[in-house]
Design brief:
By secondary structure, the chain is an alpha+beta fold. The chain folds into 2 domains: 44 residues; 96 residues, Sandwich (Immunoglobulin-like), CATH 2.60.40.10. It is 22% helix and 33% strand. It has 2 helices and 11 strands. The strands form 3 sheets. It has a 5-stranded mixed beta sheet with strand order 3-9-8-5-6, with no helix packed on it. A hairpin with a 2-residue loop joins strand 1 and strand 2. Helix 1 packs antiparallel against helix 2. The longest helix is centred in the last third of the chain and has 23 residues. It is elongated, with a radius of gyration of 25 Å. About 4% of the residues have low confidence.
Length: 168
């Protein structure tokens, strides 16, 4: 029984560990902001658009642009930038990755207006900023409850703490 309790408490603590947010983002293509937008197809009018984004501080960001591989290093603030020199007119499969995160999309380099299927690509209005979720009080409460449960289970297993029982 004690072993089951310790197993449960250990799993509880590991299950309530902090989840890490995704850090790899592409913020703009050719100067057009695309933060918080996920599409599998982007169009750029012109040549060799700069790819600007964020990743973990000092992370290596690997880029594959069609058959060309390149890398960029994120600064201490996580910002990175890559200025391609080999993109010609046409479609290019783009893969951007850092650590275990990656993103894929197709980039159409067009010398005409940015259209695909008769739809003109224009940047939309900036998205509303979402409120930050959670807070420190809930996190601290969860940590204290988990730690307290672990300590109670350890003391019970060691025989220091015995549950109340009815005596005859």
């Amino acid at each position: 029984m004690k072993l089951r309790l310790l197993t449960f408490l250990s799993l509880f603590i590991f299950a309530t560990s902090v989840a890490h947010a995704a850090t790899l983002e592409l913020n703009s293509i050719g100067g057009v902001p695309i933060t918080n937008q996920t599409f599998s197809y982007w169009t750029h009018s012109g040549t060799n658009p700069s790819l600007v984004g964020t990743a973990s501080p000092s992370a290596i960001v690997e880029l594959t642009l069609g058959t060309t591989s390149a890398s960029a290093t994120a600064g201490l603030d996580g910002a990175w930038r890559y200025d391609p020199t080999t993109l010609t007119a046409g479609e290019h499969a783009i893969t951007i990755s850092s650590a275990a995160e990656s993103m894929n999309f197709t980039l159409l380099i067009s010398t005409e207006s940015a259209t695909k299927g008769g739809v003109t690509a224009t940047p939309s209005a900036a998205p509303a900023v979402l409120p930050q979720s959670g807070g420190i009080s809930g996190t601290m409460l969860l940590l204290f409850v988990g730690f307290g449960s672990l300590m109670a289970g350890s003391l019970w297993y060691a025989g220091v703490y015995l549950p109340l029982t009815e005596e005859n």
